[in-house]
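Lecture notes, unit on protein representations.

Consider one protein chain, 239 amino acids long.
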Amino acid sequence: MLMKNKETILTFYQKDNPVFAEVFAPRTKLYPDWWRSLKESKSDTSRSLHDIVPTMKTCPGFVDLLSTAIAIPMWKEIKITYDTRIRKIEIAGVNTDQELSEQAETHPSVQYGNNFSDSIHLKLKSPWLSVCNDRTEFLLLDATWHRNEFSNYTVLPGKLEFKFQHSAHVNLFIPKSKETKTFTIEPGTPICYLLPLTDKDINIEIKTVTWEEWRRLFRPWIWFRGGYTKLKKLFDKGI
């Protein structure tokens, strides 16, 4: 007898603050406004009354992506001022350097071999602990279809899983500029997609927890280097 596959559950835990859970929660089937307003029209060059020009609502690649991907919203308003380096980061409700370090950080270019010299790195630290009950993998992608401009930043792709680690931080490349520039990402704007690399349905749960529960869920690495890989190997060995 075939065993039924266990349901895959991806839970986003947020520290005790219902605003995120109720307003800025990760969602599936989050279609952009421009897509919802698309209407079929007759081709200007068509001689047939029935020759209708289809819209992107009939494009399987687009529809399947947004019906499957989990849209992660920007959780706070963030304003970034930069030129050849980041000059200032302003985040709503963040008033101290310690609070800022909990929200965003940069990585030195030496970590990626000093390549991409025309770009500045910035990591936005997600406020959620993402926990999956199995080893389903997810592809993190730029929320391209929810953006109306592409010059300010690019979200860098990556493959993640949330059984052994629970962070879904968003890494950006910001193009360097000779002039000082500033851009803002509004709260609620999808900042990235999480695309499940599985045919199974993903059941999303949003849970607000106390600080005590958050500290219990948070998993610091036992090893400074390679802790994530070592933890997975221990699990595979049944330790």
